[in-house]
Amino acid sequence: xxxxxxxxxxxxxxxxHANGAKNPGTFVYAITGDIxxxxxxxxxxxxxxxxxxxxxxxxxxxxxxxVDSFEPMLSTVVPATKNGDLSDDGLRYAFxxxxxxxxxxxxxxxxxxxKYSLLRFMLTDRASGPSFLLLEPLLGVSSVPRKDGRPDPxxxxxxxxxxxxxxxAVVLHLEKPYAPxxxxxxxYAPIFSKKWVVAHGGWDxxxxxxxxxxxxxxxxxxxxxxENGTGPFKLERWDKENKQLVLARTxxxxxxxxxxxxxxxxxxxxxxxxxxxxxxxxxxxxxxxxQYLPQVQGVPGLTISDDLPFLETHNAFxxxxxxxxxxxxxxxxxxxxxxxxxxxxxxxxxxxxxxxYAFDYDAYIRDGYRGKGERARGPIPKGVxxxxxxxxxxxxxxxxxxxxxxxxxxxxxWEAGFRFTLVYAEGFAxxxxxxxxxxxxxxxxxPKFRVDVRPVxxxxxxxxxxxxxxPMSNARWHLDYADPDNPVFxxxxxxxxxxxxxxxxxxxxxxxxxxxxxELDREKRRADxxxxxxxxxxxxxxxxxxxxYYFQVNRSWVKGWYYNPILxxxxxxxxxxxx
Length: 579
Known about the structure:
Layout: H1 2-9, E1 17-18, E2 21-22, E3 26-31, H2 46-55, E4 60-62, E5 70-72, E6 92-96, H3 111-124, H4 132-139, E7 146-147, E8 150-151, H5 154-162, E9 163-166, E10 169-173, H6 181-187, H7 194-199, E11 233-239, E12 244-249, E13 262-267, H8 271-280, E14 285-286, H9 293-296, E15 302-308, E16 312-319, H10 349-358, H11 361-369, E17 373-375, H12 398-407, H13 412-416, E18 418-425, H14 429-443, E19 449-456, H15 458-466, E20 472-478, H16 485-492, H17 497-502, H18 507-518, H19 522-539, E21 542-543, E22 546-548, E23 550-555, E24 558-559, E25 576-577
Parallel strand pairs: 3-13, 3-14, 18-19, 18-20
Antiparallel strand pairs: 1-2, 4-5, 6-10, 7-8, 9-10, 11-12, 12-13, 14-23, 15-23, 16-20, 16-21, 17-22, 24-25
């Protein structure tokens, strides 16, 4: 706690009470997990994105708590057929750009900055990054085509023609209709200053200089630990060693300045410490896992918002079918000899089914969520269109688990045994509990089966998973937009985030994902998603655990905070602290 307070005091923020609120101009958010990058074209994790929502702005934004109603942001309108900014065929979206908006360095926003930002978002295309979110609707591909490992130069012209500047408007040209496009634009592709990025060594926007900036290393980006957005807050400092990000109010913001003067994100991975900070008023909000809810219920001065919709494929086990075993700390000997696993251990479907039968789902829901949840039935969370409540699931059944392992690798897995490390991101106790329950189930099957459990930093998990070093881990997928296309692509399409990183590929799944994406008939689309859930049940590329609800804990003096299932952790422009 002393470390946290010292970090805030360095900003000369006044302490004391005003209208009952401690430290009234500063909101301290006790978060779990560390920030990976501030570059919105590189980062693709919820914690980093939470910071970026405050620093950058998009063309349009979600209207309050709605996931399908939008309001203008850097565009002056939300394109629609009735205002003429969306063509009747759904292929042309025009965004008139707001005049007089300033970046944090004081320069004015122009339509050229918008075009540059959208092109950079797509053409950066770092491995396992978010570029596909715009590449798919605008250019019909999930990644930039490559020649000899480098980007195809001809692709630049295609992207350049898909985003044009027409007077004060930026126009997007689609090859075919893409229903979730506005949802994607509301939370992705933030806008920044082209001039600033170029001056700091970034891509200059030309085709000739593009290749060196394609698929960059994280820290090579000028936006990794700097920013120049138009958002209500700007970067004050990022203390990576102490895991504290401090944002300051943008006084020249194009709307009324934010009510808060400072916004502090502080990584606190221990739930007990987060609780103490809340109790003392030294944190104004905190991320908490449901298993710790009883510890904060009834605490004076706290407000708990519960039963919030959770648009997330929550805490699933993801398995890498082909591990890069060179120097890998998680695979033991690297052989099926009782002291390790081979790189292709999880490529055997019997192994995957064995793990699915060995997990005690009811115990996880009871002990981790106090009964507040139900079995997940695939990658589509309950409450999202396409969810099939009748889809069969693998029950907790140790006899069936043993039968599967006796078939795996022609019986050798059962005879020789195995050992590996099951990983989760540090600070997420609910994921740690899932790993311990899996460990217990697996080790109960055979004394030769051993599973070690290890937490790692969130940023470490992200890099190691993308490098195919983690054989099995417990992770989540928070929906980027409120449509089933997002989670099924991520988990089941061969080019989706989890499928691609795990090496899972089923051409039939790919066909159904692509068919559902372009299907306009709602019932046919629903049938496609039911088929995809069945494929997930058959193939077991991942093990889905439960669907649950979100809750938020704030000090009672926090006003103006609202919940949006996509933004999840909060948008702080309207937030204040009062009696």
